[in-house]
Amino acid sequence: MYTLSNVSKTYKQSSRTVHALTDVNLSIGDGQHVAIQGPTGGGKSTLLQMLGGLDRPSSGTVMLGDAELSRLPDRRLAGIRAKEIGFVFQGFNLIPTLTAQQNVETALEPLGISGEQRSKRAADALASVGLADRGSHLPSELSGGQQQRVAIARALVKEPDVLLADEPTGNLDEETRDEIMELLEGMHRDRGLTLVVVTHDSSIARRAERRLVIKHGAVKEV
Amino acid sequence: MFFTYLRRELAGRRRQTAIIATGMALAIALVIIVTSISAGVKNAQAKVLESVYGVGTDITVTQTPTAPTTANGGRQQFQFGSGEGQTTDGTTTVSRSRLTSGPGTATFDATELATVSGVKNVSAAAATLSLRNVTFSGQLPQRRQSGTDTGATGGQTAPTDGTQAPQGGPDGAGGSAFDVNSFTVLGLDPAADAIGPLSAVTLADGRSLAKSDDGKAVAVLDADYATSASLAVGGTIDIGGTTFTIVGTVASNTADSASASNVYIPLDMAQSLSGETGKVSTVYVKAASSTDIDQVQADIQKAVPNSTVSTQADLASSVSGSLATASSLVAGLGLWLSIAVLAAAFLIAILFTISGVTRRTREFGTLKAIGWSNRRVVGQVAGESVVQGLIGGVLGIVIGIVGVVIINVIQPTLTGGASQSSFAGGRGGAGGTGAAAGTGSTGESTRGTGGGFSGRGFGEAARAAAATTNVVLNAPVTLSILVIAVALAVLGGLLAGAFGGWRAARLRPAEALRSVA
């Protein structure tokens, strides 16, 4: 479970100082489904970076379970990202030269899993998102929805505790959007993982059990 | 995964791979071609030097020439006594041959050979004495014994009363004609045949000098010289006033090249006939191993004061002709061109790798976000670069070998001359003046003082001294060249990988969240 205490983040942007987050206090319980909304530039992405261990706050602490993400060295942070956190991105972020199967396997690479195990688990993950027969396809040969399914399989293959999704349906049409959200919510339900979805789509936010709005660096419950 | 990713990345980004590999390939091909041409030129130089200095000679020791101590120094002088020559029909024929050390040749004591042999890591040493034999022969009018005349003075008689026309001489009218014939003579120890000038020749006819020839008047001739002087095995040759039997002829191992000297005779004979008893002019030294050459050179320099100690490398600078041009071209232009092209190829590889990493910012950011360590990402980038370099290296080796094969098929011919120091200053081309002999001594002048020279010999001496050799350039590709090529390819790949990896390492995992461009 996440505990953020007095988290502030400031950036230097040329001569200007940007206050992306100001004094955020927040806790997210295990297995919660949280939606984060807010205007562009309000601090959504910065908050997601703090939760994902992609960046450190300027002040305050970010705890994931017993690990203080705000103070761990890069190497340990990478380890936590590899084991405990799954990411789903707006742009899918698949490696264009790798097949669907190989893209999923990249998530198992840092865990030191043997080749045979790796390909079996990746194939299972692809099957669980409904792409059992698409393993040998390159991302360019898949539709947007299929690409995002591959990305979800990549995020889930390592069986993480947390799934962070940054505008997961932002690049998809409405029909596909619902499919993807159902898939994510299904995973959340079946596996009991914590699901944090950043979105500016209210219809998606309404599906979450808890809604947060972040504006001018401050977080408010809705 | 590493190799799968690598393979798919290189296959998936063929353009970048092709550009980097092509740049690397061209640079490495150039390095291979230049290196092998340079090796070929070095071999050619060694061949040219071999014809003069013999096979296996690493170092030569000569004495630094000093100013002559006597008034006439090393100049040739022929003095004829009053009763000398044979007189028939009013013409006196005189002939005298002298064997002297050549101009500019300084001799030193033969005991220095022992000193040189005693230097550490000298495996063999042999001494030679470079000499030149000059035969002065000619015809002059009979000396007259008239009481009223001023009398015989020197070689010419000048009638003072004007009542008697001069008689005799080659033209029958009081003129004179002289012939100067010169050839080079090398005295060497017949026992020491493993090193020195005679080690680089092949026997054309007869036999070579043997140990039992010490003290005997036997000579071996350069085959070309023997032909031009109409001499053959079994014949005789006058050297320093002694008649030598010709026992063999030798030819240079190198095509179209004369051997080091016109005539080879036993060292002791050379010494006694030239009055240089106990003297030698050059000591040929073979070092125990090529790595000892510098040490041996330094030690000999110390042991034999006032000597000039030259290594093959020093001698190589004496090689002239188009070979020297090729050598400096390869050493100068070739080297710098290789370095420039190699640097350009490295730069291209580095820039393309960095730009490739920049283009893949989101990709590497994503990998970092899903838990890839910095080391793994950097390793991937470096791995790609090294393989690109290796592809370039293999391509470069293929192109390079094709280039070298083309050179070897064309077989460019280079000429090289090596002027042996002891004959430096030998004048060539003087032979033409001989044509003046006839007209200069027609005796139409009543004083009858015409004279002329026939200088065939100088040309011969000069030819042997500056042995011009045609050498076919062969560019060898050795294993070490290929190893260097592959090493350069890997180095280029590593350099590009280091820069690309450095760039990738600085990428923040948060880049994964960048919105789609």
Summarize the structure.
Chain A is 34% helix and 28% strand. With 222 residues, chain A is of the alpha/beta class.
Summary tags:
heterodimer; A: 222 residues; alpha/beta; Rossmann fold; 6-stranded mixed beta sheet; 4-stranded antiparallel beta sheet; 34% helix; globular; B: 517 residues; alpha+beta; 2 domains; 13-stranded mixed beta sheet; 3-stranded antiparallel beta sheet; 18 strands; 22% strand
Structure explained in plain terms:
The complex is a heterodimer of chains A (about 220) and B (about 525). Chain A has one domain (about 1-220): 3-Layer(aba) Sandwich (Rossmann fold). In chain A, helix 4 crosses helix 5 and helix 5 packs parallel to helix 6 (about 175-190). Helix content of chain A is about 35%, strand content about 30%. In chain A, strand 7 (about 160-165), helix 6 and strand 8 (about 195-200) form a beta-alpha-beta unit. By secondary structure, chain A is α/β, with parallel strands linked by helices. In chain A, the strands form two sheets. A six-stranded mixed beta sheet of chain A has the order 6-7-8-3-9-10, sandwiched between helices. In chain A, strands 2-1-4-5 form a four-stranded antiparallel beta sheet, with helices on one face. Chain B is an alpha+beta fold. Chain B folds into two domains: about 1-45 and about 325-410 and about 475-515, no CATH class; about 85-140 and about 165-305, no CATH class. Chain B contains 13 helices and 18 strands. Chain B has helices at about 1-10, 15-55, 110-120, 225-230, 265-275, 295-305, 310-315, 320-360, 360-370, 375-410, 435-440, 455-465, 480-505; strands at about 60-65, 85-90, 90-100, 110, 120-140, 175-190, 200-205, 220, 235-240, 240-250, 265, 280, 280-285, 305-310, 320, 415-420, 455, 465-470. In chain B, helix 1 (about 1-10) packs across helix 10, helix 2 packs across helix 10 and helix 8 packs parallel to helix 13 (about 480-505). Chain B starts with a helix and ends in an 11-residue tail after the last helix.
